[in-house]
Amino acid sequence: MARLFVEFCLPHHRGENMRPKALAEFVGESSDLAETRWIDNETASYLSLKASKCSIDTVHPFALSHEDAEDLLNLVETIVEREFPDLPFDPKATMGPETLSKGWLEGPRQSPDRWGVFFWAFPDWGDSSGSVLMLTSPSA
Q1: pTM
Q2: Which end of the chain, N or C, is less packed with Cβ atoms under 10 Å?
Q3: Residue 69 pLDDT greater than 70, yes or no
């Protein structure tokens, strides 16, 4: 997931059109006017691209284990520190005690100017297990 985040979400955030690369490398799973979602056959992760959002998701039965989710969270922290050194950690960006979640977000809540990186993993939820690694950009 970290590799997909670096290869797709970071360039997408900077304004690059990542759809041609996604079309060449992945299988299209769904598409509408607002979003296209692809499946990475190597990791069974979903890549979603919207105008101001890029996310990589996993779902059961391909959800991350608790250990893999912790490792990914450590990688995401390193990526955020390197790519967005001024993006503040938001201690309120959590999804409860049964999850691994962390967010680095800037801008007022509920504002189109709010943007940042958010990671949420819920590995121990059985058939509902999964994870989300998302980068949102300020609305244009």
Answers
A1: 0.89
A2: C
A3: yes
